[in-house]
Structure formats: C-alpha cells, structure tokens
Design brief:
Strand content of chain A: under 5%
Distance between the termini of chain A: 65 Å
Largest interface: A-B, 35 and 39 residues
CATH class of chain A: Mainly Alpha
Distance between the termini of chain B: 66 Å
Helix content of chain B: 40-55%
Mean pLDDT of chain B: 89
Helix content of chain A: 55-70%
Largest sheet of chain A: none
Oligomer: heterodimer
Strand content of chain B: 15-25%
Number of strands of chain A: 0
Order of helices and strands of chain B: HEHEHEHEEHEHEHEHEEHEEHEEH
Order of helices and strands of chain A: HHHHHHHHHHHH
CATH superfamily of the largest domain in chain B: Response regulator
Radius of gyration of chain A: 20 Å
CATH class of the largest domain in chain B: Alpha Beta
Structural class of chain B: alpha/beta
CATH topology of chain A: ABC transporter involved in vitamin B12 uptake, BtuC
Amino acid sequence: MDMSAINPVLLLASLMVAATPILLAAIGELVVERAGVLNLGVEGMMITGAVCGFIVTINAGSPLLGFAGAALGGAMVALVFGILTQVLLSNQVATGLALTLFGLGLAALLGQSYIGIKAPVIAKWPVPLLSDLPLIGPILFNHDPVVYLGILIIAAVWYFLTYSRAGLVLRAVGENHDAAHALGYHVVRVRLLAIMFGGACAGLGGAYLSLVRVPQWTEGLTAGAGWIALAIVVFASWRPWRLLLGAYLFGGVTVLQLNLQAAGFALPVAYLSMAPYLATILVLVMMRSGRAPGSLAQSFHASR
Amino acid sequence: MTLKTLLAGTGIALALATGAFAQDQTKVGFVYVGPVGDGGWTYEHDQARQAVEAHFGDAVETVFVESVPEGPDAERVMTQMALQGADLIFTTSFGYMDATINVAERFPDVKFEHATGYKTAENVSAYNARFYEGRAIQGHIAGQMTESNIIGYIGSYPIPEVIQGINSAFLHAREVNPDVEFRIIWAYTWFDPAKEAEAASVLIEQGADVILQHTDSTAPQAAAQAAGNVVTFGQASDMAEFGPFPRVSSIIDDWAPYYIERTQAVIDGTWESSNVWHGIPEGMVAIGEITDAVPAEVKASAEAMIEAIRAGEYHPFTGPINYQDGSVWLEDGEVADDETLLGMNFYIEGLTGEIPQ
C-alpha cells in the first residue's frame, strides 16, 4: 500500500468535480421541497437533462447551448410532474416515482442514435489570478465553468430564500399553503415555478455527467445520482450551505474509494464501493435532521 | 366474416408463411452485453454479425438483442430467441455461461456458441480469443512509453481472462523497463462510461501516464485525451478516432471468420461442439496500427514480437516467471499450458496488491 501516491490537492480538486452533478440536482430539489412539493423524479429529470444536453451539443456544436437545452429538457419533464400534481392533484410520491421511470425510458429512446459519439471537450476555465495561489488555486479555482456555476446557484438560492420577498412567499407556501392562500398568494403558480426550477437544475446536473464528467451518452448514465441528491436535501435539513457540505462529503467518499483502490489499499473493493452510501445513511441517522417544511408532499386545492 | 375467423385465418396464414420461410433460411441470434454503439467489445461482435449477413445474403437471417445484463435476463432473452426459431445463438459475454448451458439443455436442437467461457455441452461450443497475446504487445509498448513508470490498469471483473491480460502486459512492460509499476482499479462492470471515466481520472491523478483498460467503452480514452499527455490503447475495437494520440495502438477482436465458419457448419449440418482458443496466428486477435507517436525502434520491436507470435515462435508466457510471492511458476524456457492460463487466478512477481476474491 502506498498512501503517498494520493495527492491531497488533486483529491480535493476532483472531489469538487465529482460533487457537482449531485450538488446541482440537490439544490433544485431543495427549492422544490421548500415550496412544499416532494418530487421523487430527480433521477428521471437528471437523465433527461443528460440526453437533451448531449443531443443539443452534438447538433449545435456548442456546450453552452447544450447546457441550456439540458435545463430546458429537465424543466419540461418537471412541468409534466407539476401539472399532474398541482393541477390534477395526483399523489406526489407516486407521480415522482413514475417520473423517474418515465425519464429513464424517454432518455434511452431519445439517445438511441447518440451512443458512442464523442462530445466536444469543454475547456477548464481557471479564474484569473486566484488560480495561481498555492494550494487553494488548484483546488478551488481551476475548474470548468459549471463547477463555479453550481456554487453560484447555491449562493443565489441562499440569498433568495433568506432575504428576498419572493423567497419568503415561497417558504410561506411550503410551510402552510392554506395560510399563504388566505394571504392572497398564488400557491399553485409558486409551486409550478419551483418545480420547473428544480427540473432545470437536475437537467444541468445530468448534462454535467454526459458533457463533462464522462463525456459520452449511454443509457443509465446517472446511475442513482438523483436518489443521492434527494438524500442530501434531507441531510442538509433544507439549508443551502449545509447542502454544499453534504454534496462534497458524498463526492469525497466516491473519489477517495477509487484512490484507495489504485493505491493498493487492502480492503475488499465491495466495502469501498458501498462506502459513499453507508456514509449517507450514517449521517442521516446521526444528524438530528431539521424540521421538514410544514406542507411538504401535501396536495393543495383552494376549495379545501 | 367475424373477427374470430379473421384472426384465425391470419394466424394460419402467418404460420404457413413463417414455416415455409424457415425451411430455406438459417436464423442466427446474437446476445450482446453492451450497446452495439459502445465502440468496443459489442461493436466488434456486431461487425462480425453484419459480416455474416453480407457473406450469406438471403440464406441467413440474423437477430440480436443488445445491453442484456448478465443474469436471469440473459436466460430469458436466449429462451425467447430459441422459441422464435433461431438455429444458432452466439452469447457474447463471460457472464452468460451458465445461462447458455441452462437454455441449451431445454433446446437440444438449437446450437449455442458461448464466448470466453469454459463450459461446453452437446449443443454448446465455447470460443475464446487469446487476448493476452495482444496484451504482451501493449505491455511492450507501454513500458517504453511511460515516463512516470506508473501504468494504470482498469480491470473489469477478476476473472482469468482479465488476470491473464494484467500479467501478460506487466511481464512485457517489466521486460523493457524494470522500474515500471502497475496500479489496478477494478470497475466491476464491462460497460459503464461514468465509472470508467472516473477510474481513468483517478489513475491519471496518481501519476499514471499510460492507461490500459479491460472495459468496453471509450470513456477512458476521452479522459486521457483531456489530460493531454497520457497514452492509451484501443480495447476490443480499434478506437481509431482517438489516434494518433492518446491511442497509440489497439487490440482488435475479429470474430467474423469464426462466425461465418460456424454458421456454414450449421447450414451444412456438420456443426459439432468444440472449444477453441484462437489468437494472433488465426487472426481472431489483431493489433491495430501502431501510430507515429511511438518511437520507430519501439514500433519495430513490437512488430517483430507480433510476427514471432504469429509464426508460433514466441509464447507470451515463457519462463522464467515467478508467482507474486517469489516461488517458481515457470522454469527457464518453460511455456505455460492452456489449462493454467484458463484458470489463472494469481499475479506474477512484481505486481502489488491482491486479486479481489
């Protein structure tokens, strides 16, 4: 075993990259849940985003358009969920699960003729000056633009929920939709917007996998990342900055287990492979999870 | 005419039509572990299937099912194929072995061909390629291309076929470069681009400047390309789109001659169960073009090695070779027998780490 082979700087840098897809999907779901909606279809929205982003990038030749297409694709699938649960008042848990299965199938269908095609490489985008700092530079400031975007979205969501009037309305809708309705807020409209934001973020996360991380399209590409994102939202007790921590923790264990394996660590591979999932369960059990939004997963109708 | 009689009528007509059809057409089925567009293992099997169609024209009809998981699903797919009238079924992954044997028992009139396994039956043949011959060439080139002296290896499953490859590549890398080290990651999958890309990045981060893969997707090639200074080899297929660098050469599986030969045997009624293991001499294993990124003298010696293997003058596992613990496996000049190779579950001297059990 040769622990010196593991370079902590590179490990931390690749941790940030590995965490990005889950982070994006989770921050979207956080907003959705703060609005009082439980969307279990994150996995389905992610993979739809992954395939839409890939198709647009290949045909338009621009990864930027690809990410936009991914966000749009994710939001459209989410809108289906929104209409079903908010307008037609179907059960959120069942509809969310159906959305995951639907998304996986839809993505496989759309992606059929895109298997084995190469995506254009997205260049890293080192932050000027900051990336030259010793240690911190390569860890924090030498990534592709989407990694920064993920952190920016978290900061924006935090600001939005804490300090803006609209954020307050969204939280009111999530805490007690009857009271919010009585105050004259449009519960269904707020929730639909939140659901579409969640879909767009999940789509971005999926596209990060198919355009940057792999970069290739293949069926089942997301391999359960959406479910981890759901767990991280609970782990973070619905708070944006804790969510960042959770995503890095998960990304870190994923990267670490591969590093340990390559360094010849004598633990059976099976244990290392399950480590990230064990860590998630452990943290969920140990941390006193915060209170969930009051109206989470409840259907709202003005007449009731 | 009522709906019922209409349906019955069509049913009979259909049965007659397919019956008449089946008499002069041989149906050949293929079960694939990955998508035909994986650019590697399954892609080559599908190329061979198309070669069969081109060779026999209307006399043969082929069907295939892709991305079939190794497990109960495989058995279901094979059964379905046999029920649909396939005369010959190629099952193209190691993990289909038991499923193939099980289904073959229920359909004694259907011939089965299982790739890379070791179990055979009255109507089940096994065929395999000596990939380790190609790995010897890879190791020979890799050992001389590496500057960090660290070679990363992405293994799929710890089965003999993969371990042969690791040992063969390592043996020939050490031969030309005594300082070379192997770092091995087991991906536990044949095809999972996300996982393969991750594994490749980690190996590169740990200093590997050559990545060898025994998984089927081109994701590690893309990871190496992004890193910029990392050498790779095409696996199972040429993967020429990543040449001339990072992909400097490749191991190509050419199944077409074998598939055509076996289909012909079924048509002639001369098919018999067999167990073949072909390599470079028979053309089942081919080495893709060695690009100009490789120094000329290295290319020349690699080509000399290919020729020696082709002529049967050189066996990649020729002693002296020791086990990992230093005890003797092969004496000087002794050549490994096929039985040991087919059951290979040990590393040779110099490799670190353990094979997961």
